[in-house]
Amino acid sequence: MTSRTSVAAVPSVPRKVLTEGSGVNKSIAAIEYAVRGELVLRAEALAKQLPSVDLPFDKIVYCNIGNPQSVGQSPITFVRQVLAGVTCPSLLQPESGNVFPSDVVKRVTDVLAASHGVGAYSESKGIRFIRERVANALQARDDGVPANPDNIYLTNGASEAVKTILSMLVRDHNDGVLIPIPQYPLYSAAMTAFGGTQVGYYLDEENGWSLNMDELETRLSDARAKGITVRAIVIINPGNPTGQVLSRTNMEDVVAFCEREKLVILADEVYQKNVYIPEKPFISFKKVTHEMGADVELASFHSVSKGVMGECGLRGGYMEVVNMDRYIQELIYKVLSVSLCSNIIGQVAIDLMMTPPQPGEPSYELYNKEVDEIYGALKRKAIAMSDGLNTFEGVTCNRSEGAMYLFPRITIPPAAVKAAAARGMASADVLYCIEMLEATGICVVPGSGFLQKDGTYHFRTTFLPPEKEIRNVITSMRRFHEQFMAKYS
Amino acid sequence: MTSRTSVAAVPSVPRKVLTEGSGVNKSIAAIEYAVRGELVLRAEALAKQLPSVDLPFDKIVYCNIGNPQSVGQSPITFVRQVLAGVTCPSLLQPESGNVFPSDVVKRVTDVLAASHGVGAYSESKGIRFIRERVANALQARDDGVPANPDNIYLTNGASEAVKTILSMLVRDHNDGVLIPIPQYPLYSAAMTAFGGTQVGYYLDEENGWSLNMDELETRLSDARAKGITVRAIVIINPGNPTGQVLSRTNMEDVVAFCEREKLVILADEVYQKNVYIPEKPFISFKKVTHEMGADVELASFHSVSKGVMGECGLRGGYMEVVNMDRYIQELIYKVLSVSLCSNIIGQVAIDLMMTPPQPGEPSYELYNKEVDEIYGALKRKAIAMSDGLNTFEGVTCNRSEGAMYLFPRITIPPAAVKAAAARGMASADVLYCIEMLEATGICVVPGSGFLQKDGTYHFRTTFLPPEKEIRNVITSMRRFHEQFMAKYS
C-alpha cells in the first residue's frame, strides 16, 4: 500500500519506495552468498587501509574464491590469441605482420565465417557452429555417447544456466531440491530467490565427503513426509567446497535413485578437468545415465572459469540437457532469449576449452606445456595444503581429489563459540575466519556459508596462490591457529 | 505431488518431472518475447531451406532486432583494438611490431594496471577503475551533475540490470509497474517472470508517440482502484519501438508525477546516442531530477549494444542508481554477486563507449570518421524508411526521432482479421508479418508483440540494413503490402 499512503505524504518527509523490510521482495532480500560476503567486504576494507595503516601483513591473500588469474595464474596463450583475433580481425592481415600461428588464424577464420562476429547477438542458445563443435567434443569425452547441438545452451558462466533451470523447476515453496551440505552457495541463493525449499543431504566427512545413499533416501522421505514435492537433486562432482570425486558405482546408485524417484539430476561438472587422483577419473553423469539406459532428466553444467584455463572474467558457460521434454527445451530458449544471448567471446572460449589444439598444430606444444604447468602446480598445491592443515592441532582436512578447494574441519573452543555468539555471528567459524583475516591477511570463507553439520566448524580455502607463496600461507595459518586456540582456551 | 505419486510409477511408463502445464513454474511458462519469437523461428527455418528450396527471395533480411553488426555495420576500430589488447597483452610487446596506436596501448595498459585482466572475476559491481571513469563521463554528459562510482553497477547488457531491479521491486502479484504501450518486451517478460502486474500506459500515436500526463494519472488511479500497489514506472527514452524523444517539459512533468506519487523511475536510456533531430537533444532523467531537486528514486540503464558502437555481442551494460536506499544498494550488490560479476570485456567496452578518444590522440580522427559514417547513415535510413512507409496505402508511420526502429500503423482488411483468427493467431498483424516474411524474406515483428491499442495493428522494423539495401527493402515491403491488401479486400 506504499503508493496509496504516500500520496498523502508531506514533501518534507521524504519516503522511499524501495526500502528494507516490507519495501522489497522478501525472497530476494533473503539471499545469502558467503563467497562474496562479510569476509570479502572486510578484506577489501583492509586492503584499502594497507598503504596508510600499520597491519600485521603486507597484502591480502584471497583464498575465498576460485579466481585463479586474480592470484597470479597466467592465461593460456592459444586461448587469448584466438580471442584477440576474433575481436580484432584486422590483426590477421599480413600488414599486421602475422602475429598469430596458423592454427590460431584458422580458428579465428572459422568462427568469423560461421557467425556475425563478436559484436552481433547470436541465436539465443549460442552460435550453432560452436554448439556443434561442443557436441562433437562431448561425444569424444563420453566415448561416443551421442551429443546433440540442439541440447546445448551457451550461457554467461554456468550460473546463468543453473538459475534458468531452477527457476523452471520451482513452482512454489512446496517444491524442493536436494542440495548437498556442504554446498556451493549459488544453489541456496537461487532456491531462496525463487522461493523453493532446500532439502539438504549431508556428505559424509568421515568417508572423504562421499555421497551416502541411505542419507539421500532418508532426506527424500523426510521431505515428502513434510509435504514437500522434491523435484531434483544437485550433485557437484568434483565437489565444491569438498573436493571429492564420485566413483562410478556411487554415480550409478544416484542415477537409479533419481530414475526410481523421478528426480531431475542437476550435475555441476565445472571441475571435470580438475581431478588430481588417477584412481578416480572424472565420469560424466550423462555417460552413466546413457550406459545404464536410465530414463532420467539431466542437466550438466560446465564453465571456462575453472579447469586449467581459469578464465573467470570471460563468463563463458554451457548447459547440456538430456532427456528433457521438447516443450521444456523451447521454454529454456524463450527464457534465454529475453537476455538475447550470452556474450560471444565467452561462447568462443567454450569452443577453445572443449577443442584445444591438436597434435601437429603449431600451438599444440606450447598449449600443452602451459596446461601441464598449471595442472601440475594445482595438484602439488592441493597436497601441500591439505598435508599442512592436517598438522594443525584439532584440524582435520580431507584430501582434495578434485576442484580448487579444501574444507578443513576445525575444533573451536567453547570460549570462542561464546565470543562469536556475543558478537551476533551466525557461527563460530565466522569469528575464526575474521580473526584469521585480521591476523594474516588471508581471506577464507566460513564453513557456515556453505552449510555444515550442526556443532561442526569449517572454512573453505582455495589452494590457488602461487606455489612459492603456499608455504607462507600454511605457516601463517598455523601461527594464527595456535594463537586463536591459545586465546580462547 | 509428482514425486510422491511417481514412486508408484511403473518403470515401463516413463514420466518426466519438467513438463508443460502443471510440471513447470507457471510464471516462467507465461513469458513472451516476440523479438525472438514465432517470426524469427520461421525466418530461421526459411534461411535453412534457401539453398535447396525455390523461394521468392534470395536471403532473409533481419529487421526484427536492433543488431547492427548482423546486418553489415562494422565495429569501430579503436574499440576492437583496445579489446584485443586487453585480451592478449603480448600484442603490446615490441616484438609484435607495434600493431596498435599509442592511445590504444595507453588504454590497455591503464585497464590492466587497475585490474587482474579480463580473465579474473572483478568486484561484483564491476572494476572500480572503470566505474570511476564512467562516473566522470556521466558528470560531463550531465553538465556537472555529480556522479558516484558506488552508484554504478556494470552488468551483462542492460537486461541483467533491468531484471535485477524489477525482481526487487515486485513483492507479489499486487505490485504493479507502469509500462508504456507499445513497450520493449523485456519489461513485460520480466514482470511476468516475477509475477507482478503490468500497468500499461498508452503513448499517444496521434501526437508522435508522446507521453501524456493525463493518461499516466488515469492509469495510476485505475490501477490503485483495483488494489494494485504501483511501485515504479518504466520510461524508454528515446523510445523503443516508437522512436520518440521526450522533451524537457515532458520529463519534468513525469518527475513531478513520480515524486508526488512515490514511483521509482526506471529510465531505459540505451538509445541516448541515437537521436536524429537537433531540436530534441537527449536529456537524462538524472539531470532533470537533480536540477528539479526532486526526491525520487531513479535507475538509469545503458548499454554498448546500441548507440553507434552496436556491440550487441559483447553484452556490456550498466545501471546508475540515484537516491536509492543504502540497504537497497547493498542488496543489488548481493544479487549481482551470486553471478560473481559481468563479463570483463563488456565492462571495458562500457569504458570505451563512455570515454572515446580525445582530440589530439592518434585514434581521434579515425574514430570520429567511423562514428560520423554510422550515425549519418542511421539518420538517413530512418528518414528514408519512414518516408517510404508513409506512401503505402493505409499505412501511417511517425518519424523516428531516435533509437533504431519504426512502428508503422497498418490498416488490415476484415478478411485478413478473420483469416488470422481462423489460424489462431494472437493478432492480425502476425498474419501480416508472416506473409511479408514468406513473400519478401524481410523479418519484422508484429505490433502485438509490443502491445498496442485494441483494434490497431502495427509492426516494428529496424532501419539497420545497409543504405544500398534500404531502397529494396522499402520496394519489397510496398509490393507485398499491395498484394496483401488486394488478397484480403
UniProtKB/TrEMBL annotation, chains A, B:
Cofactor(s) the protein requires to work: pyridoxal 5'-phosphate
Top-level taxon of the source organism: Eukaryota
Residue ranges constituting the Aminotransferase class I/classII large domain according to the UniProt record: 98-475
Sequence intervals crossing the membrane: none
GO biological process: L-alanine catabolic process
UniProt GO MF annotations: L-alanine:2-oxoglutarate aminotransferase activity; pyridoxal phosphate binding
Pfam families: Aminotran_1_2
Keywords: Aminotransferase, Pyridoxal phosphate, Transferase
N-terminal signal peptide: none
Recorded family membership: Belongs to the class-I pyridoxal-phosphate-dependent aminotransferase family. Alanine aminotransferase subfamily.
Quaternary context: Homodimer.
Protein name (Swiss-Prot/TrEMBL): Alanine transaminase
Organism encoding this protein: Gymnogongrus flabelliformis
